[in-house]
Specification:
- The complex is a heterodimer of chains A (491) and B (503).
- By secondary structure, chain A is mainly α.
- Chain A has one domain.
- Chain A is 74% helix and 3% strand.
- Chain A contains 19 helices and two strands.
- Chain A has helices at 3-11, 17-44, 72-91, 100-119, 123-144, 149-176, 190-198, 202-219, 229-235, 238-263, 265-292, 296-316, 326-356, 367-370, 372-385, 392-407, 409-434, 450-468, 471-487; strands at 52-59, 64-70.
- In chain A, strands 1-2 form a two-stranded antiparallel ribbon.
- Chain B has 503 residues and is an all-alpha fold.
- Chain B has one domain (2-495).
- In chain B, 71% of the residues lie in helices and 3% in strands.
- Chain B is built from 21 helices and five strands.
- Chain B has helices at residues 2-20, 26-43, 85-104, 106-111, 117-134, 138-156, 163-194, 199-208, 215-232, 240-247, 250-272, 281-304, 309-330, 335-364, 375-378, 380-394, 400-414, 418-443, 457-475, 478-481, 498-502, and strands at residues 59-60, 63-64, 74-76, 81-83, 491-493.
- In chain B, the strands form two sheets. In chain B, strands 1-2 form a two-stranded antiparallel sheet. A two-stranded antiparallel sheet of chain B has the order 3-4.
- The radius of gyration of chain B is 22 Å and the shape is globular.
- The N and C termini of chain B lie far apart (52 Å).
- Classes of the chains: A mainly alpha (491), B mainly alpha (503).
- β1 (52-59) of chain A pairs antiparallel with β5 (491-493) of chain B.
Chain lengths: 491, 503
């Protein structure tokens, strides 16, 4: 599958880069739907282990295979990626960009790497894609970013690479502990790695656990590893921010589910309270920060930390109770919805910025009176973000909190604050920007263009559609979550 | 052996060129000669009825064996040299690097067109390097080191009017002779204990007289180690490197940090990763472990503080030496493999970096990091390929450098040196910091001078070739790693998925 992108990437060097890029991403989306259809068909036959996969030898001398597979969990994230990339490209459609061909080539390159991360079933391949995803976003932020981009993107790069290197060390450690078959070569196959991980003693597992957790926690980011995030989001170009928040941070949460849980369950059991505590601190801290923000884009950045903290908590509370699958299912659903919502929110902030030239909420106000249509879209997306019933955010957050409740009522109480706080800062933002009296600058708010309208309509429809029928996703992942749970055994 | 003869003949030819006035065609002759030498070295693979023993299967208990008369291909000069599989691999790496290096430094030879002895000196240095890949006797080790070093003392000072260059040559010479003295003293002590210069006999001596080894034998090992580590510029024997690298003409710096480094590490491998000294590993592994850690930290941390690119590369080459030593310290079956790959990846990345550096220095007249400002606009091709090369040196996938680092780290962890591996990881993070300083300067900083930077066709081709090799090694590392044991990968594709494979 990812081969497609590499090929399409070559064409984007042409002048009509954005058109080609858009076409490429739409084709990819269609392909993704086809894959979805095939996967559902396999699942419909009652096959528990339904997945599409490719497994070819790559570096056979050290047991690395090009091993990719698409099961329900991966499918959700691949769908999200393929759904968002065309929208992200559409967002920049009307803006003049320097070097558009490079820009869109990087975005498509990024898409390839992201899909690679979500489908890889080989530790080494996973690491390669993980790092590959970092390179295009680094250049997107560096070349097209705002002021101060040099130092800020650099901090971001160094921070995430630090995490990745520890992950690499952890993966190599597991690799060296895999059983040597008749070939005499260790293997990076995910199942072998997981078996090796479960065979380790608690201390060894803890080392592996922290190695992996550090990488994922920095990527998500979870308090106290979040310091790179607000500045980077703020200074990145809008599309870069969308890629970062909409898709890239899902790499971290996906990594928790796919790699951390099966590799070191005992260590997770032991350290569970600590990491769940960190996630919950991260929720509360980020919510307070969001409430205190005067700047809308920063507000969204902090809200993103809060949401992802909830997702992380939902995944990490999984262990003590074996039957606690709500947390994971909720996390997957919420990853999908949060991706859509946050991209919607950043799009809205971008639309405001392109007209008013400021993100500062105090300088805005009364836009609703000038642009009622825009206000309606904003309202819908915001409702999704604060998890109102019948929007997509509700299902995920409900499942997550009920999962956390099984773990500890107190933790659930704290985590539940996120909904209340979320409503506080979001509504506050809405109130400042859209309601109130028309100010001199906001009276000049020009109506939405066609492309902006189309993008907003698609996002708003998705918000409501997945709120009304979340079963599309729930059915998709159910059997795979169960399989994952069965695989994990405590000592 | 023919390789050594051929290189010596080329060297002599270069000396005569002045006399018989054919120095204009000397450059192509040398290039063709080098290509011939590479071909000769490769042809050793096929000597053994085409069923060459794969290099890496020559391991016993995870230790690489010195080829004996029975399994070596060219055992000659009274058992002084043996051209085993490892010699072939390293020779090919050294000679190919030298070939690319020649393409890179055409300007250097043209500027000094009054005398052709530079060609001769380089050729003799290469002879020394090849001897280091295949010695089986301590005297040959010493000779190889000296043959390699003496031409470089001269070449480092070849910018006669530049006081920095003179300082560089002088420093290199004084400290280099000092190190050679250490090496010689060490060899003497070992001879005193074991009664032999022959590597195999020394190895047997360690194994047979475990209890009765005199303590001055260990002192000998230490002294030899000091002498070799000096050549490799490992901390704490690295103080000469920054000044010498900065003062010497840039092509010579490139030569020192690629070919000489490879030769020095192969000399160490042949002593320490072979049956010679591996019997005494309980003694030298901890020592080398400390030195490795120190080298990694010192090299990277000081490199991060540099503003002069040439000096920064000098310090970064120290840190790469640290990674190579990490492979030796690991002392596992994987070590030699990892080091082979690392030297190849490092040499290629360095050649590309130095090519760009030479062009920039030529046109802006400075090697400060500011002279890279805005290169992304002033010459996009150069900036792009330098980015790839720096990615490779910093160890970011999917470049060759990443796999090199990966193999070294795996070797270290297999050998049980987890702490050293973690130091390696942290220090390579610092490495990313200073390599990215250049990338940021290229794409982000405004240049003082907007004019385009031109580059000749030959260098352009060289850069493209190096970039292709970096990616090739990065995507298909098996090209080097499994020479000799071709393994058809099993392909496993379920029916409906064929669609996606093609899609």
């Amino acid at each position: 599958m990812p081969f497609v992108f590499a090929l399409l990437l070559l064409f984007t060097k042409d002048d009509g880069a954005k058109r080609v890029a858009l076409a490429a991403s739409v084709i990819e989306f269609i392909l993704c739907i086809v894959a979805y259809y095939f996967l559902r068909q396999q699942q419909a036959t009652g096959n528990e282990d339904a997945r599409l996969f490719i497994n070819i030898g790559w570096i056979s001398s050290i047991g690395v295979n090009f091993n990719v597979a698409l099961d329900g969990i991966s499918m959700v994230l691949v769908l999200l990626t393929c759904f968002l990339i065309p929208l992200i490209i559409l967002c920049g459609y009307e803006k003049k960009q320097r070097h558009p061909s490079y820009f869109y080539a990087l975005i498509l390159f990024m898409q390839m790497a992201l899909i690679g991360v979500f489908v890889a079933r080989d530790g080494f391949l996973f690491y390669i894609f993980w790092e590959l995803a970092l390179i295009p976003i680094y250049f997107i932020c560096l070349i097209w970013g705002g002021e101060n981009r040099g130092t800020i993107t650099f901090k971001f790069f160094l921070y995430t690479t630090l995490g990745s290197l520890f992950m690499l060390a952890a993966l190599i450690y597991l690799y060296l502990n895999t059983s040597v078959g008749e070939t005499g070569i260790h293997t990076f196959n995910i199942q072998a790695l997981a078996e090796a991980g479960r065979g380790l003693s608690l201390t060894q597992q803890s080392c592996v656990f922290w190695g992996l957790f550090l990488a994922f926690a920095i990527k998500m980011p979870v308090f106290p590893f979040h310091t790179w995030q607000p500045d980077t989001y703020y200074n990145a170009p809008t599309q870069g921010t969308m890629l970062l928040s909409g898709i890239m941070l899902k790499m971290g949460t996906y990594g928790l589910i796919r790699w951390l849980l099966p590799m070191c369950p005992d260590a997770l059991n032991y350290w569970g309270a600590t990491v769940v505590g960190l996630s919950i601190i991260s929720i509360i801290y980020a919510s307070f920060m969001a409430i205190a923000q005067k700047d809308f884009k920063r507000l969204i950045a902090y809200s993103s930390i809060a949401h992802v903290g909830l997702i992380a908590a939902g995944v990490l509370v999984f262990l003590p109770l074996k039957e606690n699958t709500e947390g994971i299912t909720g996390a997957i659903v919420q990853m999908f919805s949060h991706g859509i919502n946050v991209v919607g929110l950043f799009l809205i902030s971008d639309i405001i910025f392109s007209r008013m030239n400021t993100f500062e909420m105090a300088k805005l106000g009364g836009i609703r009176n000038v642009a009622p249509k825009f206000a309606a879209f904003f309202l819908i997306i915001m409702m999704g973000s604060v998890a109102l019933p019948l929007t997509n955010g509700f299902v995920g957050e409900f499942l997550l909190i009920s999962g956390i409740y099984k773990y500890s009522a107190f933790a659930a109480g704290c985590a539940g604050l996120t909904i209340i706080f979320g409503a506080v800062y979001m509504l506050r933002g809405y109130q400042f920007i859209m309601l109130g009296e028309i100010k001199s600058n906001t009276s000049l708010f020009t109506p939405l263009t066609k492309i902006e309208t189309v993008t907003l309509v698609i996002i708003s429809c998705a918000v409501i559609f997945f709120g009304v029928c979340p079963n599309l996703i729930l059915d998709l992942v159910r059997s795979d979550v169960n399989a994952l749970v069965r695989e994990i055994k405590l000592k | 052996m023919k390789v050594i003869l051929l290189l010596s003949v080329l060297g002599l030819l270069a000396l005569f060129a002045e006399l018989f006035r054919f120095k204009k065609i000397l450059y192509p002759i040398i290039l063709i000669g080098l290509a011939g030498a590479i071909a000769l070295a490769i042809s050793y693979w096929f000597f053994d009825d085409g069923a060459m023993t794969p290099y890496f299967t020559g391991m016993v208990d995870g230790k690489h064996q010195i080829p004996t008369a029975a399994n070596a291909i060219g055992h000659s000069f009274n058992q002084m040299l043996a051209f085993g599989p490892s010699s072939v691999l390293f020779s090919v790496i050294i000679l190919s690097t030298a070939f690319l290096w020649f393409v890179m430094s055409k300007g250097f030879f043209n500027n000094n067109s009054t005398n052709t002895d530079h060609y001769a000196l380089i050729m003799f240095a290469l002879v020394g390097a090849i001897i280091l890949t295949c010695y089986t006797n301590m005297t040959m080790l010493f000779l190889g080191i000296e043959i390699l070093s003496i031409p470089l003392y001269v070449l480092a000072g070849s910018k006669k009017s530049d006081p920095l260059s003179n300082e560089s040559a002088f420093k290199y010479f004084i400290l280099g002779s000092f190190a050679s003295g250490f090496l010689l003293f060490g060899i003497t002590l070992i001879y005193g204990a074991s009664g032999s210069f022959d590597l195999k006999t020394i190895g047997t001596f360690i194994n047979t007289s475990q209890e009765a080894i005199p303590s001055f034998f260990y002192a000998g090992i230490l002294l030899i180690l000091v002498g070799l580590l000096f050549k490799l510029a490992a901390a704490p024997f690295h103080f000469w490197a920054p000044d010498v690298y900065q003062g010497a003409p840039t092509p010579i710096t490139a030569f020192m940090s690629t070919v000489v480094k490879t030769a020095a590490i192969v000399a160490i491998i042949r002593l320490f990763l072979s049956t010679t000294f591996s019997g005494a590993d309980a003694f030298w592994v901890p020592v080398l472990g400390v030195i490795t850690g120190l080298t990694l930290v010192v090299g990277n941390v000081t490199a991060a503080a540099q503003n002069n690119v040439k000096r920064m590369l000098a310090f970064s080459s120290i840190s790469h030496a640290g990674f190579l030593l990490l492979g030796v310290t690991a002392l596992c079956g994987f070590s030699a493999k990892a080091i082979v790959f690392y030297t190849a990846a490092y040499s290629i990345g360095s050649i590309a970096t130095f090519t760009v550096l030479i062009n920039i220095m030529h046109q802006t007249g400075s090697d400060a990091i500011e002279s890279f400002n805005g290169l992304g606009k002033r010459n996009p091709l150069m900036a792009f390929i330098l980015t790839i090369a720096l990615f490779s040196l910093a160890g970011i996938p999917p470049t060759a450098g990443f796999f090199a680092k990966y193999y070294i780290l795996t070797a270290a962890m297999t050998g049980g040196h987890n702490w050293l591996a973690i130091i390696g990881i942290l220090s390579s993070l610092v490495g990313i910091y200073y390599y990215f300083k250049i990338i940021i300067a290229m794409y982000f900083k405004k240049p003082t001078d907007e004019s385009l930077i031109t580059i000749n066709k030959q260098h352009q081709l060289l850069l493209i070739v190096t970039a292709v090799i970096i990616f090739l090694l990065g995507l298909l590392p098996d090209l080097i790693l499994s020479i000799g044991d071709i393994d058809r990968a099993s392909i496993e594709v379920s029916t409906t998925n064929i669609l996606f494979l093609y899609a």
